[in-house]
Design brief:
The chain has 316 residues and is of the alpha/beta class. Helix content is 53%, strand content 13%. The protein has helices spanning 8-51, 60-65, 70-74, 83-90, 94-101, 111-128, 135-139, 145-162, 164-186, 252-273, 289-297, and strands spanning 190-191, 207-216, 222-231, 242-249, 278-285, 301-304.
Length: 316
């Protein structure tokens, strides 16, 4: 029996309450999450300035030795360069740039080709450096500590601005999982990691785990990441635990773009474990009736964060 998916008469009120809950959290805690990330990113930028001698030594040799400085250098230009824009301007190898963004150099790239690409990248970045942020470059003098810190903060803001949505989303996910943990532990459940080499049906009764990979497929095995896996104290006949996907959203647009992800997941899970598979959503934020209707049609139920006690209705 569905808990919320079959009650469209309640959706409108739930949507409003969910939006209010997300907005309240965002106003009170999102700035803190952003500030903490910016402080850490500022330190990384200062380190990149040190490695490039305050941007006076952006050379192929430096990029090869410290490829991880590339994201900082892209945000140090005027205008800041998106990854693909840099690849186009420098006629650079895309795989090389993607690897550098992760802090490594491709091992199999021929040395001469690597040197040519790195020289081209360094030339573009050096030419486009934002001298308004780095006044010491135009003045031809050494940067002061104050100038360096100010410039690092500006570049860190640019870096954080480019990934602000993931920063907020990750902070919100951590909060949602902490709320689930608190709710389950009050009911006597134990947070316990399940061995990766053991089937989920062998999970101990009355335990739960976070961020588990559930194996699906027979000939071609695939890991399906699941945010929370909860094994009821009284086992279901199938011995399958409850699978929970924590989802939050700060606007209605992105949820409708991502709604097919859950449909694909439940299809793969049911193909492997049967129709008794319980895969539900834990929702907070902007999820409209179009999104809810789509998920309900796919056989996916949900629990609203503002009514977490509905979790108990799934046999917990």
């Amino acid at each position: 029996m569905a808990i919320n998916a079959d009650k469209p008469q309640l959706w409108k009120a739930d949507i409003s309450e969910s939006v209010d809950l997300f907005n309240s959290w965002f106003m009170n805690f999102a700035p803190k999450a952003y500030r903490e990330t910016r402080i850490e990113t500022t330190r990384d930028v200062e380190k990149s300035l040190e490695l490039t001698k305050d941007l006076t030594a952006i050379t192929a040799e430096v990029l090869k030795a410290y490829p991880g400085v590339l994201p900082t250098l892209r945000m140090a230009t005027c205008p800041p360069l998106a990854r693909d824009r840099l690849i186009g301007l420098a006629y650079a190898n895309k795989n090389l740039v993607l690897k550098m963004e992760l802090g490594v150099i491709p091992l199999r790239m021929p040395a001469e080709n690597l040197k040519k690409n790195l020289e081209s990248i360094s030339k573009i970045i050096s030419k486009m450096l934002d001298h308004d942020i780095f006044p010491w470059l135009e003045a031809g003098k050494s940067a002061t500590d104050a100038e360096r810190h100010r410039a690092s903060t500006i570049v860190a803001d640019r870096l954080c601005g480019a990934v602000s949505d993931p920063i907020i989303r990750n902070a919100q996910e951590r909060r949602q999982l902490a709320y689930i943990k608190e709710h389950l532990e009050k009911k006597g459940y134990q947070h316990k990691a399940h061995p990766a080499d053991q089937p989920i049906t062998s999970m101990e009764p009355g335990t739960f785990s976070f961020r588990m990979n559930i194996v699906v497929g027979d000939d071609h095995k695939v890991n399906i990441p699941v945010d929370a896996v909860i094994q009821p104290k009284v086992l279901h006949r199938s011995r399958l635990p409850l699978l929970v996907e924590a989802k939050s959203a700060g606007d209605f647009t992105n949820t409708n773009k991502r709604r097919k992800e859950e449909a694909i997941k439940i299809s793969q899970l049911r193909k492997k474990y049967g129709n008794d598979t319980q895969f539900i959503l834990f929702l907070c934020g902007y999820f409209d009736s179009g999104y809810l209707g789509y998920e309900a049609a796919e056989g996916i139920d949900w629990v609203w964060e503002h009514r977490i006690d509905d979790l108990d209705k799934f046999g917990l």
